[in-house]
Every structure is written in C-alpha cells, then in structure tokens.
Amino acid sequence: MPGILGQPREGEAEEWSSPAPGIIRYAPTDLNPHGGGLAMNRCKVCGLSFNVPREEDELRGLLTPVVGANRLELPRPTKCPQCRHMTRLLWRNERTLYRTTCALTHKPVISSFSPDKDFKVCDRAAWLTTDNLDFGRDFDFSRPFFDQFAELYSDTYKAAVIQSGQMDNSAYSHFTGWLKNCYLLFDSGKCENCAYCTLSSYSNASFDCTMMVRSELCYECYKIEDCYAVSHATYAKNCSNSAFLFDCIGCKHCIGCVNLRNQEYHLFNEPVPRQEFERIWADLMSGSEPIIRDYEDRFQRLLSRSPRRSAFLVNALNSSGDSLINCENVHESFDVSGGRNLRHCHYMFPSSENCLDVSTFGEGMDYCYEVSACGGASGKAAVSNIFFSAYIYYGGYNILYSVSCHESSSDLFGCADLRRKQHCILNQQYTKSEYEALVPRIVAHMRETGEWGNFFPPSIAPYAYNESLAQEDIPLTPERAETIGVTWSSYIPPIPDVQGIIETSELPSSIHDLDDSILDAVIRCSETGKLFRLIKPELEFYRKQGLPIPRLHPQERNRRRIARRNPLHIESRPCSLCENLIMSAHPQRAPYPVLCENCFTAQLP
C-alpha cells in the first residue's frame, strides 16, 4: 500500500513573506517547460504566485465529474500545488500509533487516533459490524457543506487502523495489507518480518527502510529495489552484500560507493582485492557504533563532491519531476511508476492514468482529482472518478468529498466511514434518481459558499499538524501552524512500565556487549529526547547482521531517511559540465555537480 513525503535538507528550504508567514517553501519557478500558455494565480494560503499551464486546465476539464445528466465544472485551484498537497496530508497520520479503548468492545486497541481525540474509535473487527448509515442526515441548504460534514465525521465509528488482507502478528501497523510478523509498518504491503518501514512491499527481514521493493535483510535504506543484505543505501537496485551506497545498480560487495554500475569489491569507488575487502567488511559489520559512524562520515565526504544526475527519470516520455519510471506525459510529479497523463502527483503506483493532484497510492486509479491515499487493485476493483476525498480504496467510483469509504462503494457525496454503499449523501441513503437530482443542487450551494473545488479545510482535519504527514514535507512550529488555522497536538503518551530509561551515552558501543535485558528498558533518543524500545526480532537482526543498535527514535530515523531525497520541486539550471539548460530537482546552491543525462552517463565508471 501507499505513501509519504519528505523534509528539506538544511539549506534547501526558504522562507517567503506571505499573508501566512512561516510556511517553509521550496523556490518555485516561473518557467513552463511543457509548452502552452501560463495563467498566474496567487495562493490564498502562502500568498505566492503559481503557474497554471494550459495543459493543466485541459486535464482538469477532462476530469469534470458527471452526475446524471449534469457536468459539475471544476474551478481553477485557489492554492498552489504544495499547499494543496499539504492540505490533503492533514487527513493522514501514518507515523504514530497510540493505545486507546475501543468504543464498542471497551477493550484496549492500537489506533492512529490519540486518546485525547473525541472520536468513536473501534477495533477493526468490531468496526466491520457497524453501519454508519445510522448517522445519516439530510442536507441543510442554510449551512455550509463543510460544517455539516465535520459534524457527520465526528459522529461516525472509525476503524482504529486501516488494514487489508491477511494480517498475521502485525497489529502495530496502519494503512497496510498482507503482513506477517511486522511491527510499525506504514503504507506498506506483502512484507514479512519487517519493522519501522514505510512505503515498502514484497520484502522480508528488513528494518528501517523507506520505499523498499522486493528486498531482504536490508537496513536503513531509502528507495531500494531487488536488494539483498544492503545497509545505509539510497537509490540502489539489484545490489547485494554492500553498505553506504548512492545511485548504484547491480553492485555486489561494495562499501561507500556512488554512481557505480555492475561493479564488485569496491571501497569508496576504488577496486580492492577480494581478501582485503572481506577483511574490511568484517570490520565494518563487527557491530561497533564508532566504526559505522566513521565509514558514514567518509561516505558523506565522497558523496558531497560526487556528481548527481539532474533527475531520476527512467523511460519517462515527455515528463518532468523526479523519480519517474516508465511514465508518459507525467509532469511536476515525484516517485511515480507506470503513470500516464498525470500532474502534481506523489508516490503513485503502476497503472494510474488521467489524474491531477494525488497524494500517494494509485495502483489502478484513473480520472481522480484532489485525493489522498486512494487507489488499490490487488485482486479487487480499482478506483476512478474520485474527487476531493481521502482513503477511498479497493473499489470506489464516482465519489466526491468523502473519507474512508471503500470496498466497491460508489456514487457518494459527503460520506464518512462507509463500505459497499451506493447513492448516499451525508451517509443518508437515496435512490439513484434522488441522488442525481440532489447532488447538483448541493454543488450549486457550495459554489455560493465558496466551498466547491476546494479540499476539506484544515480546521476540520482529524489530526493535528505535527502528527500528520504534512509535517514531514512542510515542517512548522506551533506558532507558524497557527497562522494557517491548523491544530497542534501536545499529547504525550504515558511512559511504559519498564525497568528503567537508558541514555544513549550509557549504551555500549558494540552490539555484542548487550544482553537481552535491553528489551526490558527504554532508550532516550539522543536527538529528540523521545523514548523508544527495542523488540526481540530487531535485536536478533542487529546481532545477526553485525549492526549496532540505533541511538535515534524510529520517527527521527525515518525523518533522516526522507531527508536523503531531493526536494519536491523542479527548477531550471545549467548542467555543470556542458552548461545546457536542464530541469532539475537539485537546488541551485547544491555543493555537488548536477549533470544532464548525457553528461552523467558519460562520466559513469
């Protein structure tokens, strides 16, 4: 299952003066690389101007929803792409789980909603017995739609976590499916024996990885595919028995290497004899924290001066953005595979077409606009014609302004927490003719109130800004968050009943000097001060792989992995070698050379 966003590295974000001061923005570009005319707009959240190319207007026109005989024309957006993205992510907490009580069984339950929230949170099994049509209500044309939806959303029973398929011993996960023996996985599916992973699939026995596919025995990696026994890697494919890699393909037995292809027994991009490498590898994987840090420092020095490709585009025809694979006509999008005719999309899985403004998932999605965490085929029906909605998955058609409605639901407007329903408005059941007559009237009303064409406002989002995915991409302080009208959570979970709290300075430097008593204690993160603990399979993994235990909280480890990727924007800059103009995801002031595809390919070893 699907997705997340990242956080800018130091020096890659800028503050901009705006009516909503304090939002951290990436520098926009006024260059339209796709041709066509531009229409300039000013974002009502951050105050920055943003471009609307003619092609985007044409795609929006293609996506116009139709209800009965009525075309519900979509207005141009009033927010810039990044603020639209931020607004959608406010409806998603896929990083923190809490202990709370099921509203139906009154038993303990693991939940994405903190206990201080006034929601009817239920164990998933109990939730499946509910019928949230019981909370249905008539539409009141004397009141704004968003106010009415907020009241409905606060009343409905909610699944504590979203899980699909066979889930074995994987209760501590959210927005996941088909897991076995997994712990704290998010936006992931079809994994076994994994922990602290996000956006990962078809993988086994791996820890602390983000965007991992078909990999095993991997640790602290970002965006890897078909890897085995690889640690501390970023952008690696078909690699094995290696550590500290960046943009490497087909490499085996390599340490601290950058931009290598099909190489073996290399140390910091230089070949070494096999026996010498094996000695170095044994030293690196001795479980010593100081040794790991020393190699990491040396690797970072090499990486800081090594050239980077302008963008990761593989078989991307007429496309722009970063990390696009097998795409056609995909623009200003990031981490998309197998997409066609998309704009402003993030973390989209294969077979998604004709979509605009999507924040993660896809996989069989088409004709969708302003949605978050929607999609999913996996043996079930996919989704199409979804608008201004979140968590619509495994079958959804002709759905507008709805949240957490799934399993082949269709023709819904303003609904919450339904499954297998059709022709409902505010969770009220209607006939087909009644539905098709009422929805256009509601849309006309929303045009008068200024609501039509906008995603749900931040004021009614179920999560506080600092616990939502928005905080990862656009990190704010509580004071700055207040300027855009979002809440901030001050909830602190109770300290678990353990033998004691261990400071990282008290931890032994080697994994081999730790006994199982560490499992009964909690560790204080050296960076954030948050408490965390180890689980037994995790400790066994570190011992087997020769890795030191982490000194950072899992959320901080995830934040640092996300910081490895490029910013979510593209801008024009010259190639550092040939000086031809290129579109790049790298900032102008990057210390390393940024090359066009031809120059980058020519300099590969």
Give the topology, please.
Elements: E1 14-15, E2 24-25, E3 40-42, E4 49-51, H1 54-62, E5 66-67, E6 70-71, H2 81-89, E7 98-101, E8 108-111, E9 120-122, H3 124-127, H4 145-155, E10 157-159, E11 163-168, E12 173-180, E13 185-192, E14 207-213, E15 219-225, E16 228-237, E17 240-249, E18 252-258, E19 264-267, E20 270-271, H5 274-284, H6 289-305, E21 308-309, E22 313-317, E23 321-331, E24 333-337, E25 339-349, E26 352-362, E27 365-375, E28 383-390, E29 396-400, E30 409-413, E31 422-425, E32 428-429, H7 432-449, H8 470-473, H9 478-482, E33 501-503, E34 522-524, E35 531-532, H10 536-545, H11 554-562, E36 571-574, E37 581-584, E38 594-595, H12 597-603
Parallel strand pairs: 9-10, 11-12, 12-13, 14-15, 15-16, 16-17, 17-18, 18-19, 21-38, 22-23, 23-24, 23-25, 24-25, 25-26, 26-27, 27-28, 28-29, 29-30, 30-31, 33-34
Antiparallel strand pairs: 1-2, 3-4, 5-6, 7-8, 19-20, 31-32, 34-35, 36-37
Which terms would index this structure?
605 residues, alpha/beta, 11-stranded mixed beta sheet, 7-stranded mixed beta sheet, 12 helices, 19% helix, globular, disordered N terminus
